């Protein structure tokens, strides 16, 4: 998924090489796309992105290698072509009225019809690489590109004046990237009714500290290769600003803990890493304005630091499993169920579920090379076995297993994979956080990645075949997308309950 990840990095974490443009122009451009439900507006000026600075950070996160270098070159070429076709900003607007559709990408466009078509095609090509169909329309002087349902939503939107959201947009007018957020009156009412209390990790207390105390919030990325960033909050009063300062501090801690915590790192080391990041932030309250400043590049680079050796391999393996779970969920979003091994009408096995998620791990071209109506070892398909994507390879498996994977689906009665047509998520009644979807198995259980074969779990000894890569336990990807390291000391009945999806067990993986 590196090509897509790099594009997202450019949209989310740019640095600047050129001076800012007209101060108020973007607010005017965005206004026709903002309605009474809009909560957030996100913009990136791609013509001012210092691509090399962004790629430096992206490489630290994604890793080096030929695949990464190729993806970086493609991103450089894409950005250059975007500017050549008349593109500048890319933005999205999103709110409750848009859910559950994905947001459209909105691009201020040239007036010439052919130029607009050319600019839209550049984005349609990106959607095609991700395996998704997309459409586009010219609207309000922009090109809107996205899934057909999303395009229809944008086209039907009825704009209204939103002063708080407009003020948030104005606060980031000079940035290369900005996120503007303001609760609508409807959103405030819903939050106060549905969740009247702040969660404990944010300090508890009445939700009105946010819904009534905050007018708007903005995140702005400013010029500079270190990506200096500002987090701005406008409060309803000086007293409310002090309340929001306390909530923000707790939110920083909670967000970094959720983002960075891994079982491969000791608690003490993890706390030191979080403290180092938070210490780089500078926060001040001036009247009703709360401002936090930091360096986005520094935060990202510090975030990806990990212990060396075997623990780092565990982290990389967990990341691969997370990518596979994202692919499984994306497949589910498109097809309405998780993937399954493909078979002929008379039940003969053809290809593994792993082949069918290739479009969702940035391997669309490889997927198109398979003859889907032939078995994995047909004369044609067996030629593709040695092209196994790296995401299927554990860093702990033997070098000789070049065309085999140890990331396997656990098989057994009542498991996630027991529906030959693919299981809809609604049938996971034990809870997705309590149900194992994938495991990292031993080398002696490795299978040819295209072959419809996985690991059958022994009810009497459910850890059998799972303890070869690590002494203490094994990786398990839960159906909610999280990855847990389950210790070998786990009670067999507890572990079996985690493999079943509807056994009535509601206890999650042991800590």
Kindly summarize this structure in a few lines.
The chain has 511 residues and is an alpha+beta fold.
Please give a structural write-up:
- The protein is α+β, with helices and mostly antiparallel strands.
- The protein has three domains: 182 residues, no CATH class; 122 residues, no CATH class; 190 residues, no CATH class.
- 36% of the residues lie in helices and 18% in strands.
- It contains 16 helices and 20 strands.
- A seven-stranded antiparallel beta sheet has the order 2-1-6-7-8-10-9, sandwiched between helices.
- Helix 1 crosses helix 4 and helix 3 runs antiparallel to helix 4.
- The N terminus is likely disordered.
């Amino acid at each position: 998924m590196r090509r897509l990840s790099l594009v997202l990095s450019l949209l989310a974490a740019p640095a600047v090489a050129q001076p800012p443009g007209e101060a108020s122009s973007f607010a005017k451009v965005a206004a026709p796309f903002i309605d009474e439900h809009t909560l957030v507006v996100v913009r990136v000026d791609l013509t001012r992105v210092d691509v090399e600075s962004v790629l430096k950070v992206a490489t630290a996160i994604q890793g080096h290698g030929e695949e990464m270098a190729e993806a970086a070159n493609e991103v450089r070429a894409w950005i250059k072509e975007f500017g050549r076709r008349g593109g500048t900003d890319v933005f999205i607007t999103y709110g409750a009225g848009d859910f559950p559709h994905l947001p459209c990408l909105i691009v201020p466009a040239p007036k010439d019809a052919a130029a607009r078509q050319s600019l839209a095609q550049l984005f349609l090509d990106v959607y095609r690489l991700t395996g998704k169909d997309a459409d586009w329309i010219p609207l309000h002087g922009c090109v809107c590109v996205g899934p057909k349902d999303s395009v229809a939503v944008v086209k039907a939107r009825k704009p209204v004046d939103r002063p708080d959201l407009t003020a948030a947009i104005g606060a980031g007018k000079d940035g290369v990237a900005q996120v503007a957020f303001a609760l609508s009156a409807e959103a405030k009412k819903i939050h106060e009714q549905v969740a009247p209390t702040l969660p404990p990790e944010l300090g508890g207390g009445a939700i009105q500290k946010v819904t009534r105390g905050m007018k708007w919030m903005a995140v702005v990325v400013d010029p500079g290769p270190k990506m200096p960033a500002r987090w701005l909050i406008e409060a309803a009063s000086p007293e409310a600003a002090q309340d929001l300062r306390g909530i923000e501090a707790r939110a920083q801690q909670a967000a970094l803990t959720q983002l960075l915590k891994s079982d491969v790192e000791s608690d003490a080391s993890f706390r030191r890493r979080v403290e180092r990041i938070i210490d780089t932030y500078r926060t001040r309250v001036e009247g009703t304005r709360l401002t936090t400043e930091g360096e986005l590049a520094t935060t990202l680079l510090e975030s990806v630091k990990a212990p060396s050796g075997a623990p780092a391999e565990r982290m990389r393996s967990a990341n691969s499993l997370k990518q596979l779970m994202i692919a499984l969920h994306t497949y589910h979003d498109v097809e309405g169920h998780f993937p399954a091994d493909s078979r002929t009408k008379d039940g003969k096995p053809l290809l593994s579920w792993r082949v069918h998620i290739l479009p969702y791990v940035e391997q669309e071209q490889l997927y198109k090379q398979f003859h889907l109506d032939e078995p994995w070892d047909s004369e044609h398909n067996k030629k593709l076995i040695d092209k196994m994507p790296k995401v299927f390879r554990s860093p702990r498996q033997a070098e000789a297993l070049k065309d085999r994977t140890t990331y396997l689906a656990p098989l057994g009665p009542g498991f996630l994979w027991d529906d030959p047509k693919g299981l809809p998520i609604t049938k996971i009644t034990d809870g997705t956080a309590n149900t194992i979807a994938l495991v990292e198995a031993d080398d002696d259980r490795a299978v040819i990645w295209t072959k419809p074969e996985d690991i059958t779990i022994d009810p009497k000894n459910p850890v059998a075949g799972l303890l070869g890569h690590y002494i203490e336990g094994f990786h398990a990807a839960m159906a909610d997308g999280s990855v847990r390291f389950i210790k070998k000391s786990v009670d067999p009945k507890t572990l079996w309950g985690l493999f079943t999806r509807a056994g009535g067990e509601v206890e999650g993986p042991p800590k």
